[in-house]
Amino acid sequence: MRKVIIILMVVSCSIYLIGCTDSDSETEVTVSKNPDAEEVLRLDSHADIFQWEGLIYKTNIDWVNEIELTKDELVGEIEEVYDNNHNFNDGIANKLPIGAKIFSTKEREDILLVDYEGKTKKYLALGEG
């Protein structure tokens, strides 16, 4: 008798659980991606950014400014200043001047240093988030 009750309980629970599922529902898959310039500027219209190798780099981030970094190799320079008539592509910045030099760092791959007018700024690559 005990086995019959246990079997009936298991069958009842199984039927209940199957009845609670929605077999017609679709699974939504969300894919995250790195932010683009438009998204960054929409969130912070005063952001100082540039694009390099498909990534957006942003400066004036407190914890990044506190890190001691060593300039490594020259990787490129700013080629164009962004305006609303063009797409944001590699080598384009919204506040840096044309000709500003971009350097890698020895310590971190996600931070680039930019030299212009006797100043050096630290820029962090913005990742998916």
| Intertermini distance | 57 Å
Instruction: List how many beta strands DSSP finds.
Output: 8
User: Could you estimate the helical fraction of the residues in percent?
Assistant: 10-25%
- What is the helix tally? 3
Order of strands across the widest beta sheet? Answer: 1-2-8-7-6-3
How would you describe this protein?
This protein has 129 residues and is of the alpha+beta class. It has a domain at 37-125. 22% of the residues lie in helices and 29% in strands. The chain has a 6-stranded antiparallel beta sheet, with no helix packed on it. Strands 4-5 form a two-stranded parallel sheet. Strand 6 and strand 7 form a beta hairpin. The longest helix is centred in the first third of the chain and has 18 residues, at 2-19. The chain is elongated and about 90 Å long. It starts with a helix and ends with a strand.
Give a quick precis of the structure:
The protein is α+β, with helices and mostly antiparallel strands and 129 residues long.
Helices and strands in order:
Layout: H1 2-19, H2 37-43, E1 49-52, E2 55-58, H3 62-65, E3 71-77, E4 80-81, E5 92-93, E6 101-105, E7 111-116, E8 119-125
Parallel strand pairs: 4-5
Antiparallel strand pairs: 1-2, 2-8, 3-6, 6-7, 7-8
Features of the shown structure:
single chain, 129 residues, alpha+beta, 6-stranded antiparallel beta sheet, two-stranded parallel ribbon, 3 helices, 29% strand, elongated
